Automatic annotation (TrEMBL):
Family of this protein: Belongs to the vitamin-B12 independent methionine synthase family.
One BP annotation, GO: methylation
EC number(s) on file: 2.1.1.14
Organism: Populus trichocarpa (Western balsam poplar)
Record-linked SUPFAM superfamilies: UROD/MetE-like
Function (record text): Catalyzes the transfer of a methyl group from 5-methyltetrahydrofolate to homocysteine resulting in methionine formation.
Protein name (record): 5-methyltetrahydropteroyltriglutamate--homocysteine S-methyltransferase
Catalysis performed (reactions): 5-methyltetrahydropteroyltri-L-glutamate + L-homocysteine = tetrahydropteroyltri-L-glutamate + L-methionine
Length: 554
């Protein structure tokens, strides 16, 4: 990371202090996920009591030049040439030539072949993937295969090269480079054509909000939810059985229709202003879209840890991305036909799809992101054509892709925000574009969030104890609609009407009345109906209480 001099000095002092304690032990300092800046490298290689140094040479290609320039004599180098962050087969020939060059610098007996980081971030074993397409499978390596690659490279370095293994690796790389499944010329041309524009909507946000208000006729402090409603056991069972072909398509559609109708009636009962269909047909906010986009493939058992004991199964983006047909229009149009209130179309944004997938490593990430953005743009425009006037494009993972070092952050934010704008630059002024973000510290990227130019942003606020509001207290001007979450959906606790009203009042102290929305922090998928119902009722009651108070104050 960007470390100031006093922090680097702290490392030097700490290891000097530790030197006598670690005497007789082999201490390996392992770093990963980025290049090591020259100043940090100098500190690291001068630390006392250290026997070996490990570097990520997949994401840290510039570190390689520093090692070639100077490496401390007599120390071991753990060369992280096998990627621990992705699921692609290693280019063994390229890795071997890197290792041979390093051997010349550090000596044969001081070089250790390693992964770039721990294998926590990759799936466990390809052996478990019996249904995966054979050609695509040959391009992959999960954790177990990466261990085999490390051993094969170490043996080749010692003069015991497994020619058959290396030849199969070359064949797999050749097939991946030339495969028509990877390359789609039309998609590449469309993505290349994006470079000339920054894809902003023609009218500014305040004029758009006026046009939208004339059409939607919402009260002040409009209420909405983020998207998902509780995913009950029965619902999961229906989806599972439909996938296993135990339930016919007609019966499946009927079951989902029933669930949507229940969710719509519930929201109308509570008098929520902008409705959602509850997403009963969706398994996961990225997987659902990945399954319907070309260029994606799914593993059966490629689980990785997300946080705590929660695991996810990321899609694998192996080729150029396009949308063969509409993905959400059927369900959104159906839901809109059940109510006279505005029904939000619900989409996952391109940056979140990218950051929550295993991404192809044969082109820059931003190119893949632009391709996904064009696919989502098609969906946005189809929703609009089908009478959906409020469309939410979630970018929950926007901040997750932020590089560790400040010098690289502006470039990432520039293409990430641009990708979001691509998705909705073609809609009419009267179509209201929402986005949603959750569970990150947004204060340091607030200007990029404003630059996304969404009409309304709903954003996590309660769980982080209202840290978000501090940025507005410090004078950041925000002119679009904004809904900082009024209660934490990750807790089973039901907030009272007074508590929510108190939160809204804190928001009104720093935000204009005419731009403030009232909503929970996040989707309700993980909660029970016994928790959701009273919480939403209290949320709407709080909004109504404040409307009355504001009207009498006027």
């Amino acid at each position: 990371m960007d470390l100031e001099s006093h922090k680097l000095e702290a490392f030097t002092e700490a290891y000097s202090e530790l030197e006598s304690t670690v005497s007789g032990l082999n201490v390996l300092i392992e770093t990963y996920f980025a290049d090591i800046p020259a100043k940090q490298y100098k500190t690291l290689t001068s630390l006392k009591g250290v026997t070996a140094l490990g570097f990520d040479l997949v994401r840290g290609t510039k570190t390689l030049d520093l090692i070639k320039g100077e490496f401390p004599k007599g120390k071991y180098l753990f060369a992280g040439v096998v990627d621990g962050r992705n699921i692609w087969a290693n280019d063994l020939a390229a890795s071997l030539s890197t290792l041979v060059a390093l051997e010349g610098i550090v000596g044969k007996d001081k070089l250790v072949v390693s992964t770039s980081c721990s294998l926590l971030h990759t799936a466990v074993d390809l052996v478990n993937e019996t249904k995966l397409d054979k050609e695509i499978k040959s391009w992959l390596a999960f954790a177990a295969q990466k261990v085999v690659e490390v051993n094969a490279l170490a043996k080749a370095l010692a003069g015991e090269k497994d020619e058959e293994f290396f030849s199969a690796n070359v064949a797999a790389h050749t097939s991946r480079k030339s495969s028509p499944r990877v390359n789609n010329e039309a998609v590449q041309k469309a993505a290349a054509a994006l470079k000339g524009s920054d894809h902003r909507r023609v009218t500014n946000v305040s004029a758009r909000l006026d046009a939208q208000q004339k059409k939607l006729n919402l009260p002040i402090l409009p209420t909405t939810t983020i998207g998902s409603f509780p995913q009950t056991m029965e619902l999961r069972k229906v989806r599972r059985e439909y996938k296993a072909k135990k339930v016919s398509e007609v019966d499946y559609v009927e079951a989902i229709k029933k669930e949507i109708s229940k969710v719509v009636k519930l929201q109308e009962e509570f008098d929520i202003d902008v409705l959602v269909h509850g997403e009963p047909e969706r398994n996961d906010m990225v997987e659902y879209f990945g399954e319907q986009l070309s260029g994606f493939v799914f593993s059966a058992n490629g689980w990785v840890q997300s946080y705590g004991s929660r695991c996810v199964k990321p899609p694998i983006i192996y080729g150029d991305v396009s949308r063969p047909k509409s993905m959400t229009v059927f369900w959104s149009a159906l839901a809109q036909s059940m109510t006279s209130r505005p029904m939000k179309g619900m989409l996952t944004g391109p940056v979140t799809i990218l950051n929550w997938s295993f991404v192809r490593n044969d082109q820059p990430r931003f190119e893949t992101c632009y391709q996904i953005a064009l696919a989502i743009k098609d969906e946005v425009e189809d929703l609009e054509k089908n009478g959906i006037t409020v469309i939410q494009i979630d970018e929950a993972a926007l901040r997750e892709g932020l590089p560790l070092r400040k010098s690289e952050q502006a470039f990432y934010l520039d293409w990430a925000v641009h990708s979001f704008r691509i998705t909705n630059c073609g809609v009419q002024d009267t179509t209201q574009i929402h986005t949603h973000m959750c569970y990150s510290n947004f204060n340091d990227i607030i200007h990029s969030i404003i630059d996304m130019d969404a009409d309304v942003i709903t954003i996590e606020n309660s769980r982080s104890d209202e840290k978000l509001l501090s940025v507005f207290r410090e004078g950041v001007k925000y002119g679009a609609g904004i809904g900082p979450g009024v209660y934490d959906i990750h807790s089973p606790r039901i907030p009272s009407t007074e508590e929510i009203a108190d939160r809204i009042n804190k928001m009104l102290a720093v935000l204009e009345t005419n731009i403030l929305w009232v909503n929970p922090d996040c989707g309700l998928k993980t909660r029970k109906y016994s928790e959701v119902k009273p919480a939403l009722k209290n949320m709407v009651d709080a909004a109504k209480l404040l409307r009355t108070q504001l009207a009498s104050a006027k």
